[in-house]
Amino acid sequence: MLSSRQKLPLRQDRDFFKSARKYRGIGYLLYFQENTLTYSRGAVVVPKHIVSEAVSRNTIKRILLNRLACAFNTELPKNLDITIVFLSRANAVQNARVLGAEIQKLLLLAAQKI
């Protein structure tokens, strides 16, 4: 799980989505930008109109946040803000597990683009 300092405060930073670079994949959007801190921060957004059940939304968030935490502790640059917006409707939890397995590659791609 991400520590409290590694969580990106999206409610306080409303301009993040306007200023961040965007990568669109099948079933997700990946927003990323450099920050001025010495550590990376991340967030996962699962819209209620995409996954209506709270249990499923929280399961998806838990899967993806755990993968983000693992990725932050490896070879990624230490100054990235990353947000994953989950957009897959059918088999949402299963698709989150697949996306979780691909997250390391996606984050390395994002780091190369910065």
Shape: globular
User: Are there runs of 5+ residues with pLDDT below 50, and where?
Assistant: none
Strand content: 15-25%
CATH fold annotation: Ribosomal Protein S5, domain 2
The number of E-state strands comes to 4
Distance between the termini: 25 Å
CATH second-level architecture? 2-Layer Sandwich
The structural class is: alpha+beta
In spatial order, strands of the major sheet run 1-2-4-3
- How helix-rich are the residues, as a percent range? 25-40%
* Helix segment tally: 3
Radius of gyration: 13 Å
Largest sheet: 4 strands, mixed
What do you see in this structure?
- The protein is α+β, with helices and mostly antiparallel strands and 114 residues long.
- It has one domain (14-113): Ribosomal Protein S5, domain 2.
- Helix content is 39%, strand content 21%.
- It has helices at 16-19, 54-72, 92-113; strands at 21-25, 28-34, 41-45, 80-86.
- The protein has a 4-stranded mixed sheet.
- β1 (21-25) and β2 (28-34) form a beta hairpin.
- α2 packs parallel to α3 (92-113).
- It is globular.
- The relative contact order is 0.24.
- The model has no long low-confidence stretch (mean pLDDT 84).
